[in-house]
Write a structure and sequence with these properties.
Blueprint: H1 4-11, H2 15-23, H3 42-56, H4 61-68, H5 72-102, H6 113-124, H7 129-145, H8 150-161, H9 164-176, H10 184-204, H11 206-209, H12 216-229, H13 232-241, E1 245-246, E2 252-253
Antiparallel strand pairs: 1-2
Helix pairs in contact: 1-3, 3-4, 6-7, 6-8, 7-12, 9-10
């Protein structure tokens, strides 16, 4: 016969847990010896291990009590359900671990591998990190909104970044974003950027400059993200507006001013 301490030790629980299971009606109270101490037999060890195993698997104690009183078939079916739940939890935990591991990589936390690969390619081409970060922040709402279009957009981006014109535009943009708002050199860089944009639009077509087909609210959101990431972009957009172009996410020609006159 076992004391309560020995029972707890054999079952791998604390004496306090044994008493708690007694109080919840999960483990029957044993007879006491002449000194008034509880004495347990081997069957109590088995029952306590069953209780502990079910409880550690996340089964509520009220359900544990039901299972201990169930027949063999019902108990086996319940255990199978518990096993399925645990396997799903393991899969979820594994996914959480993968996301946690990607925290150190930054881009991979919220973006699919093909987008991360594109951002890495920009870095390899020497594109300024400010532009890469702005691109990354813009991709986050795009992926969340239309994940099915990511392969199409990425293929287009890879095609564009192979174009020397666009590559030159990005590199000039990187230099411009390093300038303060009152830096005279910023005006010259805005001139260069306007030339790049106009050449791309004239040689490749207007849709080459604006090719994402996004709703206006999403464009405004992405613009706001870009301006938060690279504040100098606001001044640059103002300068480009005076040179025939406006917008960040969606580049558009500025309509020419209407001629004044007395006619309709």
């Amino acid at each position: 016969m076992l004391t309560i301490g020995e029972l707890a030790s054999y079952a791998g629980v604390t004496v306090r847990a044994v008493r708690h299971y007694h109080a919840r009606g999960l483990l029957p109270e044993p007879e006491r010896d002449h000194s008034g101490y509880r004495r347990y037999d081997a069957r109590a060890v088995v029952e306590l291990i069953r209780i502990r195993t079910l409880a550690e698997a996340g089964v509520p104690l009220a359900r544990v009590r039901e299972l201990l009183q169930a027949g063999e078939e019902e108990f086996a079916a319940a255990v199978a359900d518990i096993d399925r739940r645990l396997r799903e939890e393991i899969r979820q935990r594994r996914r959480h671990r993968e996301r946690i591991a990607r925290l150190t990589s930054g881009d991979g936390l919220a973006l699919p591998p093909e987008v991360v690969g594109y951002l890495d390619r920009l870095r390899a081409l020497g594109i300024h990190e400010r532009i890469v970060r702005a691109e990354r922040d813009g991709w986050i709402p795009l992926v969340a909104r239309s994940p099915e279009r990511v392969p199409e957009w990425i293929a287009r981006k890879h095609e564009q970044i192979a174009d020397p014109l666009l590559l030159g535009f990005y590199r000039t943009l990187g230099r411009a974003l390093e300038r303060a708002d009152d830096d005279p050199r910023l005006v010259e860089l805005a001139d260069e950027l306007a030339v790049y944009i106009t050449r791309m639009a004239d040689e490749r077509g207007e849709d080459y400059v604006d090719d994402l087909d996004l709703e206006a609210p999403l464009v405004r959101l992405m613009d706001a993200l870009a301006f938060d990431t690279v504040p100098p972009a606001r001044r640059l957009i103002e300068l480009l507006g005076k040179r025939g172009w406006t917008g960040w996410t969606r580049l558009e020609r500025v309509p020419p001013p209407r001629a004044s006159g007395s006619g309709p």
